[in-house]
Structure formats: structure tokens, C-alpha cells
Amino acid sequence: MKPSLLGWVGAAALLIAADGAAAQGRRPPPRDDLQAFPAPTRGQVRRVIRLQPERDENALRVGVVVGRTMMVDCNRQMLSSTLQERTAEGWGYSYFVVTQVGPAASTMMACPSNTQRRDFVRSADEPLLRYNSRLPLVIYAPADVEVRYRIWRAGAEVTPR
After folding, report:
1. What is the DSSP string of 78-146?
2. For the residues 51-57, what does the mean pLDDT come to?
3. What's residue 122's pLDDT?
4. Contact (CB, 8 A) for 66 and 98
5. Averaged over 8-33, what is the pLDDT?
6. Which candidate, 63, 46, 45, places its Cα nearest to that of 125?
7. Which of 57, 89, 108, 142 is most solvent-facing, going by the fewest CB within 10 Å?
8. Cα(10)–Cα(138) distance, rounded to whole angstroms?
9. In Å, how far are 8, 12, 59 from 38, measured between CA atoms?
10. Using CB atoms within 10 A of its CB, is residue 42 exposed (0-12), middle (13-18) or buried (19+)?
11. Does residue 29 carry a pLDDT above 80?
12. What is the per-residue pLDDT for 113?
């Protein structure tokens, strides 16, 4: 009986010591979960989105928003771009590459002369990607392009009549 009690006391002491180290701000070094993904090429940046674990991740999607901050007037502006899915060789993990970012298209309304402002101009294509908190969502984009994201939640299922 005594050996198991000592084992329990030792395990409790180990947990208390580990909890004390975490409370003092010492954490174990983060694992390198990006080693599976290629390094960005020249002129590209790698954007990494780390998602929080959720109870029902199948009911969630990640909306990827690609764009640039630029000077605009009163016209509606948008960019064209493509988000291509690729696979990390030898690993099988998916990552995404922003390609074919074109110049901004605009409506052609006559604007008052003092309407210039800096604004985020979005791409017309905003894909919804699978939510998976176990792997980072890795997106490669040209250096002059911003990548933003939104989390989409599914509502209750409805049966049609």
C-alpha cells in the first residue's frame, strides 16, 4: 500500500511543480509545426492562421479575404485573385497560394474631388475553407497583398416543407 501512496504523492508533486513553472511564465518551447511547409519564395510572405479548438469544428468555416490597402475614391473597387490549394510533398498537408492578383477594377461614377481615402480593397473571390484547429492554416501571398480571415458558424439545420 505504501509504494502506491508514494507514487501518488510523487505524481502530485510533479503536477504541482509543472503548474508552478507555467504560472511563472515558463512554457515548453513551441513545436515547429511549420516544418512541413515550404519556405516562401522571393516576393512572397507566409501567413499562418492558428485556430482555437472548438467543440463542433464541422459547423465552422474559415473565410479567407485577400486584398490591398490603397487609395480609393467614391467608386466601388475590387481585386481579382485566385486561392490555389497545394499539398506539402511528403506530408500530405494542404496549404494555399494566392495567385493572379490583378489590378483593382472600379465602377466609373463621377466622384467629388475630395473623396480620396485609404481603404482595404477586397478580392471578389472569398473562399470558405475547412476549420481545423489541429493544423495551422498556411497561406502564401505576394508581399504587397494582405490576408485577412473571418470565422463562419453554421446555424441550426432546417427541414424544407
Report:
1. EB--EEEEEE-TTT--EEEEEE---PPEE------TT--EEEEEEBS---EEE--TTS-EEEEEETT-E
2. 96
3. 96
4. yes
5. 50
6. 63
7. 108
8. 42
9. 46, 42, 30
10. exposed
11. no
12. 82
Q: Are 39 and 71 in contact (CB under 8 A)?
A: no
73-95 in b/e form (b: 16+ CB < 10 A) is beeebbbebebeeeeeeeeeebb
Grid cell at residue 79: 481585386
113 compared with 92, residue with greater pLDDT: 92
**pLDDT tops 90 at residue 119:** yes
Task: Tell me the residue type at 117.
Answer: R
Place of cell 506539402: 88
Is the pTM higher than 0.85? The answer reads no
Task: Classify strands 105-106 and 60-72 as parallel, antiparallel or unpaired.
Answer: unpaired
